[in-house]
Each structure stands twice: as C-alpha cells, then as structure tokens.
Specification:
With 180 residues, the chain is mainly α. 74% of the residues lie in helices and 2% in strands. It contains 4 helices and 2 strands. A two-stranded antiparallel ribbon has the order 1-2.
Length: 180
C-alpha cells in the first residue's frame, strides 16, 4: 500500500491527483466565466473585473497543471507549486477584500433592493464566509498535494528512477544544435 505522502485525497496517486485537480480547476474556471458572461451587468465594476481575472488565472493554472502532470518534470512541478501558492494567497486576499470591504456595501444594497429582512442578509453573509473557508481549505490542501508531487518527482529524479524531460544533456545535441 502506498504511503499517505504519495496519495492525494487519501486514495489517488499524486500524479493522477494533479490531473484531477487541474481538470477540476478548468471546470471551475469555465463555469465562473460562463456565470460572469451570463449575469454581466451593464456596468463593469471592480468586483466583475477581479472575478474575471481570477477565473482566467484559474483556467491557466488548470492547463499548466495538466501539462505538469503529463511531463513528469520536477522543474515544472516546482514552478507550478509556486504559482499555486501565489494564486492561493492572491485569491484569499481578493476574497477577503471583496467580502469585507466591498461586500458590506453591496450586501446591504442587494438586501434593500430585494426587500429582505436582516436575518436573511446575515444568513447570506454567513453562507459566504463558510464558502470562503471551504474554498481556502481546498486550495491549501491541493497546494500541499502539488508540493508533495514536486517533492516526489525530485526524490525519484535524485534516485535515478526517472529522468527529467526538461533537462537537455549536452551529449544529446549534435552539430546542427538539434536535440537527438
């Protein structure tokens, strides 16, 4: 049986887990973009731009994750892990800013527009906070899995069981500077 450090989500090997995470990211980015296009208001505000940018970066990370898992490259996996953590921090910061700085005003306006009572508005805010916490926990867990995958590739590369495809050895280059 594989050790816990080589598994993602308790039962999936890390490489397959990276395929799963990347596919999940692409689906989430696609649904976010579709939702943004379908429910776009006439005015483009800060919140709309940040959500669109976040969805685009999420999609790009999904594509990079699929490439990383397919290539089995430590360098790509390490860089993908760094990008993942940078995006996690950026996403968390933007969510907090939108929710607590911009959200209070927007939530009050929406509650007044829909003529909702204070309890319903507080429930909506509580639900948004629960979603934020769940999102960040998933991002951190998946980030740790991506980091473990990069470490696993590094260990296997150092042990000599795999060769990093992003490394080109000088003896493999002929006179025309093409890789054999």
């Amino acid at each position: 049986m594989a050790s816990r450090k080589t598994l993602c989500c308790c039962c999936i090997p890390l490489r397959n887990g990276l395929f799963f995470i990347s596919t999940l990211m692409l689906v989430a980015a696609g649904s976010d973009i579709c939702r943004l296009v379908a429910f776009r208001s006439r005015t483009v505000d800060y919140s709309y731009v940040m959500r669109a940018l976040s969805a685009a970066i999420f999609g790009i990370l999904g594509i990079l994750g699929l490439i990383t898992a397919a290539m089995r490259s430590y360098k790509l996996a390490r860089n993908f892990s760094i990008l993942w953590w940078a995006f996690t921090i950026m996403s968390f910061s933007l969510m907090l800013f939108e929710m607590f700085v911009l959200g209070e005003v927007g939530l009050v306006d929406k509650c007044e527009d829909l003529a909702l009572d204070a309890n319903t508005c507080q429930s909506a805010l509580a639900l948004a906070i629960i979603f934020l916490v769940f999102h960040i926990v998933l991002m951190v867990y998946f980030g740790m899995a991506v980091g473990r995958y990069a470490q696993q590739l590094n260990d296997r590369y150092l042990a000599g069981t795999i060769e990093d495809p992003t490394i080109i050895h000088l003896e493999d280059i002929d006179e025309s500077w093409e890789v054999k």
